[in-house]
Amino acid sequence: MSEWWTYRLSSFLLFSPRTYFHLHELYNAEIWPAQLVALAFGIVLATLAFRGGRRSGRTIAFILAGCWAFVGWAYHVQRYATINWAAVYFGGAFLAEALLLAALGVVREPLTVESTPPARRIGAWMMLFALIVQPAIGLLAGRPLTQAACFGIAPDPTVTGTLGMLLVARRPPWVLMIIPLLWCVISGAFEWAMRAPDALLMPLVGAIAAGAVAMSRATSPARQRR
Amino acid sequence: MTDKPTHRRRFLNTLAGAALGAALPPSPGRAAAAEPPLARAIPSSGERIPVVGLGSWITFNVGNDRLARDACAAVMQAFFDAGGRVVDSSPMYGSSQAVIGYGLAKLGNPPALFAADKVWIAPGSRGPAQAEESRRLWNVERFDLLQVHNLLAWEEHLPMLFAMKSAGKLRYVGITTSEGRRHRDVEAIMRSHPIDFVQVTYNVVDRDVEARILPLARERGIAVIVNRPFRQGALIDDVRRHPLPAWAAEIGAANWAQLLLKFIVSHPAVTCVIPATTQASHVRENMGAMLGPMPDDALRRRIVSDVERL
After folding, report:
1. What is the ipTM of this complex?
2. pTM here?
């Protein structure tokens, strides 16, 4: 690809928006009622986030790892890869994030739900947004509810919820944020190429999360002590 | 490399094919349905193929969706019913190859099929395995044409494809590019290798190939497949907001799709154009471009100027 600069974003779009969103519809129908199970896990995550503590953080990381593994395999590898060969790599990245969450957030250095108030508030709102608002946002974009993207089932709300949970944790490992933030860019790029009305949503989520983490680190007690 | 007499023979074959289109007088009252669809000769063999084929970029990448696969099969059915032959795909196009295989099986493997696919992989040592996987997905005995997609690893793929042709496992060898990329490399390969086909982007707006590649294809006796005739739908979306010009009737174009396709296939170097669509009704429209008179040079210039003014 020696003339890579001549390629546009749309040059990499292998499928039509209609096929893409219909894939979501078929996926939702095939895995129903897994969406309700995922919603229950989301409510558990939000509850643990409010309860706080080291034990809650470990459970949060464990549930998130399960969600990432499920989305990586059931969505990316088994479904999305049928229309986008790059989805195999996306699936690999999601499975890698699941391993990182399990290894770092559960075993090595369990997440502790005790972040600074502004970041924690932003994180909690992001989790609620991922659970309730994001699945319905397609309706505003003119898509039926059967094509809804749900937390723990589809990539976008899973990434939003994960970033929210990482914000409520005290100094979460940066490495846990790399893949979610990269996905915010990738998702935005694909939806932009499809001219989806909500294309800027995930880049905005990523920007808010990155900003909140930076702000949290700048004002954390550990930094103030130095 | 091919010798000069072969060049001359190829050139004459091309001219003979082109003459079929050019010889048709522009009479609006011509009974389109009564005449055979316009076909052009592949210069290296003289085999004639209809000038309108079927692309599969995006439109056939529908994954495992059974309803969408059936819709693609209906598109293929309409295509073959209207006398079509050339179906083009690539390993790059997601599930398109598998969907074509599904459609062909559903239609009972139409004997008219001219199967055109590509190799798109690096390093080139993986080319044979990819070509075999593509053949398995189409479920055809062999491909009629394999092209090096976007010149990726062409130095390694071309010898492999020529070897397949020599062994009788392939009938024609080609290269592709799109949207005006790497035209200098395309020209160099056309001059230095005995390829049968070159695939390029050409339409009423994107006409870079008129300057060098199309004349070179005629000179070297290389068949030309044209991709992106509607700029992935954007061109036809733009023009169909305007009424069809009155002079379209002179060449029997009943809609914008036929007008734009007739512009392309009326170029004497063009062998086949491969519009892609998801709708059988659009296929029938496209295939109508093979019927009736073709625009002469003056009308081709008018098509360009009128479309550019829209």
Report:
1. 0.84
2. 0.86
